[in-house]
Amino acid sequence: MTSADMALPAHDERTVPAVVLQELDREPLERSLAGMQALVEQYGHVIVVCSQAAPRGVEQRLRTVRSLLESDRIALFRPELPPLGLAVLARQLRQLASCDLSPGVLASAGRLLTHYIHAGALLGSVTRLDRVPVGLKSHAKSWVPGSQFGVLAHPTPQLVRIGPGATLTGPEFGTSMLVAQGQLQSDWVSATLARAWNAQGLREAVLPAESTAWWGTAKLIEFCAFLPDLSVLYQLVTSVRQNSCHWCGIDVIGDRCVFCSATPPVHEQPARAG
Question: Whole-structure pTM over 0.85, yes or no?
């Protein structure tokens, strides 16, 4: 992880602890290189989960380090998830890291598990929200004092103005819900939404520092519905067909290798005789 407040507490004693790469965009390059090299030597492979709301210098430093080390054992993962959803996904990967999965399968499992995460927020304003489509009417209503909006960023963008009966389309399978309180007071998420989604468990978390930048306001309550059980996560990952990367030979899920970034070669069909 590139932020300490996104390293969620472990679900159980099997969950692998997170390694936090602090202030990558501020520390000397030599220190970043030495730190990453030590992680590779200790663990064999490293999966770096980074928010798209992180400072641009963090991503640049990660790519520079990976390039200078000339290593195909470092995977950079930056899915389009809000910060709390990304923190949940990172913990799921930490849960799976305790199982008998190869590094390539574990790293590419992140793409698969992303589809099962429902992440959004209750916002006091959408005037600066640029990651979810917002109509002109919603922008105008956000100037009305006391207006609140329920927003789902993933998997399918949705936006509703909070009022009687207002809700968001949720998962069609059993999930737990994590809620992070910002500078907004409301019980809509913990009461109305959690009930509508049939959340099987509700826990609170500290709001990630990057959430304010991601959502465009500090007046928010961020939430995420997810699959909490390791057995279910493991079954999902192992039920998908695995492939061997034609370039580095590591086992992966999907078409693109998460470590060397190679894609399967395109085989041209032989030309038919005229």
Answer: yes
